[in-house]
Design a protein that fits this description.
Radius of gyration: 28 Å
Largest sheet: none
Order of helices and strands: HHHHHHHHH
Number of strands: 0
Number of helices: 9
């Protein structure tokens, strides 16, 4: 370090020299650097800053560094967890840009977040219905026909009755009417 200071002057804060000197000092006092450790992560961050400049907020580098920091403090990332979901969201934003409100990505991320906080999604539930509605909007576009509200309410009512009372007979006139509305709605979509 003395020899460097004599020949080059003060060491810039973010430079290969400073980073290597800090790494040397760490190795002297602590021994080898564990692969997943605050030290290794910070050193990698320093090396990146030297060669590329500041780290953009949404970038592969920032995401990988955050993942390293998480692994250091919490261990492996569970498949369905807030951390894993947020990291995947970051990676998506890096490669594709902002996530459209109704898109497969947004829906899957919301599903992941639901599974984290509530556990598996019952087949017939408000959550499942809303997710299926999102998936429909992704593949077919916005619902803008005359029977759209009828269809949505019909599905919700039918799912509620089916969930609460078991299979619903369509012999009841009002239920049959609602299901007929649903049928007309689907026919209208096909046309």
């Amino acid at each position: 370090m003395d020899l460097y200071l004599v020949t080059h002057g003060p060491v810039p804060c973010y430079s290969w020299t400073c980073t290597l000197l800090l790494m040397d000092l760490y190795l002297v006092t602590h021994g080898p650097v564990p692969c997943y450790s605050w030290t290794c992560t910070l050193l990698l961050m320093d090396l990146y800053l030297v060669t590329h400049g500041p780290v953009p907020c949404y970038s592969w580098t920032c995401t990988l560094l955050l993942m390293d920091l998480y692994l250091v403090t919490h261990g492996p990332v569970p498949c369905y967890s807030w951390t894993c979901t947020l990291l995947l969201m970051d990676l998506y934003l890096v490669t594709h840009g902002p996530v459209p409100c109704y898109s497969w990505t947004c829906t899957l991320l919301l599903m992941d977040l639901y599974l984290v906080t509530h556990g598996p999604v019952p087949c017939y539930s408000w959550t499942c219905t809303l997710l299926l509605m999102d998936l429909y909007l992704v593949t077919h576009g916005p619902v803008s026909t005359h029977y759209s509200w009828t269809c949505i309410y019909t599905l919700l009512i039918y799912l509620y009755l089916h969930t609460t009372y078991g299979p619903v007979s369509i012999h009841y006139s009002w239920i049959y009417t609602l299901l007929m509305d649903l049928y007309l709605f689907t026919c209208n979509l096909k046309n």
